[in-house]
Design brief:
Layout (H helix, E strand, L loop, with lengths): L1 E6 L14 H6 L11 E6 L2 E5 L5 H7 L7 E3 L5 H4 L12 E4 L1 H12 L3 H8 L4 E4 L3 E3 L2 E9 L11 E7 L4 E5 L4 E2 L10 E5 L12 H11 L3 E5 L8 H9 L4 E3 L5 E3 L3
Parallel strand pairs: 3-4, 4-5, 5-6, 10-12, 12-13, 13-14
Antiparallel strand pairs: 1-2, 1-15, 2-3, 7-8, 8-9, 8-11, 9-10
Bound molecules: zinc ion (3 copies).
Length: 261
Amino acid sequence: MKIIFLGTGSASGIPTWSCNCSTCRLAKKGGKNNRSRPSLMVETGGKRLVIDTGPDFREQMLREDTRKINYALITHKHADHTASLYELKIGGKMELMIPKKVMAIYKKDFYSKGVFSFIKKRNPKIIIKNFKPFKFGKFKVDSVELKHEKDQKVRSFPCFGYVFEGKTFKFAYLSDFNKILEEDKVRNLDLLICDGNTMKQKKGHIGIINAIKLYKRIKPKRMLFTHINHDLPQHQKLEEYVKKYGNIGIAYDGMKIEVIE
Ligand SMILES: [Zn+2]
Ligand SMILES: [Zn+2]
Ligand SMILES: [Zn+2]
């Protein structure tokens, strides 16, 4: 199995076009500070899956020289994760899978006359369906319900992460949340890819400080932060900071992890 970080930036990406902060200025020179909008690709058994199709999806596919994907999973409706859904019309047969609670929002807004009908019209081979746990190569893929509303009492905006479990490796991708509602599903992880949008918890994001507490509680073997915002320290400094707390790192665009199955 291969895990490929397509995008590791926050909703505004780094550099953020309207900003001239030191991290954005540094990111303009390229390298690990340059981050496109959040997305992950997973390859196994000759099949390819992407999680989320944000505004930079096309550039990400071109960068990784990817011409075929078999599955696309969606975490939630925010535009930094879905703005390029219509791009799926390009390319061959594939399945677009969205958790039922998230799909309910799409049905209302998009299904009849919007994005989904457009995709289907242009590419009838695409299957759009509610997410159900499925076998992906030797891995079982399941969803993990998350809380992404800033108000802890409110439950109005469904959001999900995904967990991949094989015989020798288990990892979870939790990109936008401040609380895991199904924490039992993310125990015994070899790798946790975690929301690192901010340092302190802010709005719907857990914040790196609280995520380190989560790391100490659920004890994944390794943790990598993604969804990095430009107001955080630059890559190297941020990595030096999180490393002090364990086997924790900062993901970057194009980062690849090979897993022996
Ligand atoms: Zn996001
Ligand atoms: Zn900036
Ligand atoms: Zn979000």
